[in-house]
Amino acid sequence: MSFFEKRRKKKAKHKADKTRERAMPFFDDGMKDLYGNGNFFRSVDNFNRAVEIDESFFDAWLRLGLAHHKMENYDDAIRCFDKCISMNEEYQAHYNKGLALFKKDEKKKALASFKRSEKLMPGKHKKGGSIFGWIERCE
Which of 19, 39, 58, 128 is 20 to 30 A from residue 122's alpha carbon, by CA? Predict the structure, then answer.
């Protein structure tokens, strides 16, 4: 890698770090609202502000989806979980997407999400654990 390529990468990383730094206060407030005081409307607002600043903020998208799910805004929750999946195919996003799809009575799609979650993190889900219960409900 040339000197200029290294320099470009370093500048891009620094810019990304600064962007995340600006988004963090909104993320932190959203976490307090979501898990602390249960103010889901305000948590949605804070997480929205965080992802507007830093569109690649996976954890903010995931929590935004969870807040929408708590408010029974399942389409918005699914949109957030899909955004997470497009950034980093992680078991949590598939699992939570499955829950939202199940609530919408889209059991075939929910089943696919639950199975994908289990496949991505087989050690995380114990036999007889909650994901297997959800899979059974969908089948």
Answer: 58
